[in-house]
Amino acid sequence: MGTVRAGFVLQMRFYRRYPDLLVPLLTAPLYGGIFAMIMRYNGRTDLVGAVSLTPFYMSLWWFALFSGGWIIQTDRWEGTLEYLVSAPADFAAVVFGRVGATMLSGVAAFAETWLFARYVLRGDVAVRHWGVFAGSFALTLFAMAATALLMAATFVLARNAVTFSNSASFPFYVLSGILVPIALLPGWLQPLSEAVFLSWSADLLRASIATGPVPHPVRGMVMIALLGTCALAAGYTVLRRILGQVRRTGELGLR
Amino acid sequence: MNLLLIIRRAFWLGARDYTAIFTWKTWLTNWFVRVVAQVSFFALIGRMLGDPGQTQFLLVGNAVLLAAMVGMYAVNMVSWERNAGTLPLLAAGPTHPAVVLTARGSYLILDGTLSASGALLVTAHLFGMPLPWPRAAIVIALIAVVAASAYCFGILAGSLLLGFRSIQTIVTNVGLVTLMTLCGVNVPLDFYPEPMRWVASVLPLTNGLVAVRLAVTGQWQAALFPAAWEALVGIGWLTLCLLMVTALVRRGRRHGTLDYAS
Amino acid sequence: MTVVTRDAVTLAPFGVPEPELQYSAGTPAIAAVDLVREYPRKRKDPVRALQGLSLTVAQGEVHGLLGPNGAGKTTLVKILSTILLPTSGQATVCGHDVVRHGRDVRELIGVVMGGDRGLYTRLTGRQNLEFWGALQKVPRKVLRSRTEHLLERLGLAAKADARVETYSRGMKQRLHLARGLIGDARVLFLDEPTMGMDPVAAREFRKLIGELRDEQRTILLATHDMTEAESLCDRVSFVRDGTVVATRSPHAVAGLVSAVQGLELDSADAALAATLAEVPGVTSVTTDGATTRILVRSQDDFPRLLHLLADHGVTSLRTLRPSLEDVYVRLIGDRGLEV
Hints:
The complex is a heterotrimer.
Chain A: H1 2-17, H2 23-41, H3 48-52, H4 54-68, H5 71-78, H6 81-85, H7 91-120, H8 130-157, H9 161-167, H10 169-175, H11 190-193, H12 197-209, H13 217-249
Helix pairs in contact in A: 1-7, 2-4, 2-7, 4-7, 4-8, 7-8, 8-12, 8-13, 12-13
Chain B: H1 2-21, H2 24-49, H3 52-72, H4 74-83, H5 87-92, H6 97-104, H7 107-126, H8 137-160, H9 168-182, H10 194-202, H11 206-216, H12 220-255
Helix pairs in contact in B: 1-6, 2-3, 2-7, 3-7, 3-8, 3-9, 3-11, 4-8, 7-8, 8-11, 8-12, 11-12
Chain C: E1 30-41, E2 44-57, E3 62-66, H1 73-80, E4 88-93, E5 96-97, H2 102-108, E6 109-112, H3 125-135, H4 140-153, H5 169-181, E7 187-191, H6 199-214, E8 218-223, H7 226-232, E9 235-240, E10 243-248, E11 261-266, H8 270-278, E12 282-288, E13 291-296, H9 302-311, E14 317-320, H10 324-332
Parallel strand pairs in C: 3-8, 3-9, 6-7, 7-8
Antiparallel strand pairs in C: 1-2, 1-4, 4-5, 9-10, 11-13, 11-14, 12-13
């Protein structure tokens, strides 16, 4: 537990020292403004609430991709990986702690987006279904952290990780229907959407601020939990493999 | 002639750095997928609103934005140069550092033009928007002007931020979304209050985008004036950049702040 | 400067048994038997960094590893600190197998690789120590006081709350040592800890290692620096091409190379120097300022040489004992700038 805590504290300190890890917190209001502006220009004030929450999902994905995805890679660059591997503490526990800290940035992103949407963009974002909201929100944060873990692990092995993380933003925004419902995507893309936890999260969060009943809340939450768990398991497996590979081949950019 | 040679060398040097990040294959399968998705993300709003005119407006705006976006990556390029510790070497060289620096990153103009034109072509096809061929080729030239003027702006911003590491990412990201907000990408310029329009008119992208929008609808002559404005904006920023880098290097020599990677 | 014609020197056989050094009885702190480590390469034969290396280090001993770059010192340190698995062979730290009981080993050791990488540069020195201490499972209360103590002891207290990126190289290396000590390690692996340090900092560093020895910690010190090895180590092992060539106490190394002996005399003129060089058995004659050094191949060559010197009226001379550096050059070979 002490190790997880140490990882968490370390990541929080990084947030202070590397403000660029928190870039989405700066761009989120601007994106919210853009989406709300388009709706107002087109006379669709009824949609302002839903679209002004979209930056929250963008931030979540960004955090998983960047502040989570580069966790192990930066240790490789700093030359700290060898020391992490030779410490008695479980390396995976350190990574869990650090990835866990990204969940906190997710909470901050939501608070910011919601307040901006409510008080600056004047969108109707009042939560109407608290149960669905709380449940799906918590599961979403979990799934995000798990995805961050998976990326942190795979980025070490992938040769094109830089290219990927620079390119994986908008394709996933489109796929997960965080702005425009998935139903508007071409049919062949829709099954892919279901494999992205954000698509289920966005559906449920949108529904929890909408009037009227929430369609299939349980199915959605089960799916988020399931996709999160899969990412966690896959991430953990890759992490173990990486450690094995470091010890076996002496490589991973280690001198 | 000598200067041209240096510029050409610097260009290829920069281009080689670039191919360390992208190969043709990864450019197409990663980056290009991203830019097409980015344009589609916004164009889909038009589809959600059930308004083909709006779809086209958002599609063109966000496609041309890509040219400015890639041009603005010059901010990062300048800071890499510092991190790599080559900045003092540039200053020690016989050619004006701003010239070398500008030439070194000019592959970004090429990349921006390609990204934007390619994305425009593909998304126009995906969303069934007609492009008046073959004269639409002029659109590509207009896009190149946008990429170049944004690039000049980016170099200036990058040079200004030289002393502030880790702020670059913030500035590029916030800068891009600001361009996206202010320059008439997603809503027409006249939707903004007067002072904002003023700011927008001296930013890169704004005038060039107006030109592209006109050209796409076949108003070629009308497009010329805003296109010239866009070029002028770029030249203005570049001049400012040259003056500033000169001052910076001079000051750096005096105070020893042209430090190596730190 | 010394110019020695290397080929003329005969080495003492390496088979001489190690002199036994008695430290605390019982399990050795480090025991490596026949360690082999290969690094696979693409479409080429693997590189063999260790070729059957064996080494025993007693508890409380400061043991030096001497050898050129690429001799396998770093690979050995990595295997002992569980960062790397051996291809074959066995190694234990305080009786725990480094492969099967890696976790037990990691509880006991501290590792300091050379250079200034391996710290979180944007965090402060104190924050770094706190993090690594937590990873060494140091209880929080103990950690706080130990961090304070180490910062004080390593002269970092004044800059404890400054970012590591503002530290000088020497400070970073001291912080590295603090990191290695934060877990109260019984066995310390130091891989060229003074590499690139300025002489004053390096001297302080050595003083500290002496203190650590007094605390009965076992230290394995890989180094290039002969002075460092000579002043700090109870024993040194010469490593070449992935094996230990010889292990001795620094004072006993001279016995390893019987041929490296000679005489030193004041002011031999050029004519005498030329005559001396002609004497059978003399391997080199060098003059440096007012001093002339004459090296001979073996003890048997001395009488003839002394005779000749007496004939020339030379009465003031000293016998030469080979230094650790001389021995190193003989054992490892003078590779020049080759790495």
